[in-house]
Amino acid sequence: MTSWPASWFIKWLAKQKEYSPQPYEQCAKVLREAGQAGKANRVLFAGKVRERQEAWKHNKWRWAGLWVLQAFIGHGLGAYMFLSLIWVLGLALAGTYVIHQWPPAQPGLGWPASLAYSLDMLLPFVKVAKAHESIVPTGWAAFYFYFHKLMGWLLGFFVVAGLTGLTKKS
């Protein structure tokens, strides 16, 4: 059975009328013990998707929390954690564009320096370069970078929560 695709297990588990995480967790445990960690993660992810769908019916706040976890870190399950890297890349590129292009543009700030500044503002525990400490965005760019910093802190929090396993239990 462990040679069957993960989609078969997911369809089979979806047949339960009322959602319970236990069958998904048990199936994932068996797959993991059989050396199928990737399939186990896909089954657990499908269980979290179903949990989120059920939460919509009963508790919109829980639904929103599960949606955020899925969007930012894929519930902290295996390769789905790399969603956070896509967010970092997207936000870093957006910040690079804002600081480099939009008035009042920073004089003498090239694309590489703009990217370094964007990463400095985004990653709360990482300092890419000290040369950017004199840059102070103004106008709406300043407001964008407040959002940028907040998103960096949120992404960091979610990644730590995912890596420590806090997102895996209901």
Characteristics:
mainly alpha, 66% helix, 0% strand, 170 residues, single chain
Provide the low-confidence segments as ranges: none
How many DSSP-defined strands?
0
* SSE run: HHHHHHH
Query: What is the distance, rounded to the nearest whole angstrom, between the alpha carbons of the first and last residues?
Result: 27 Å
Note the beta-strand portion: under 5%
User: How many discrete domains?
Assistant: 2
Number of helices, counting only DSSP H or I runs of 4 residues or more: 7
Q: How would you sum up the global shape?
A: elongated
* Helix coverage percent: 55-70%
Radius of gyration: 21 Å
Kindly name the structural category: mainly alpha
Biggest sheet layout: none
**What is the mean pLDDT?**
86
What's the short story on this structure?
This protein is mainly α. The protein has helices at residues 6-13, 21-33, 37-58, 60-73, 83-101, 111-122, 140-164. The protein is built from seven helices and no strands.
Description:
Helix 1 packs parallel to helix 3, helix 3 runs antiparallel to helix 4 and helix 5 packs across helix 6. 66% of the residues lie in helices and 0% in strands. It has 2 domains: 53 residues; 76 residues. The protein is mostly helical and 170 residues long. The protein is built from 7 helices and no strands.
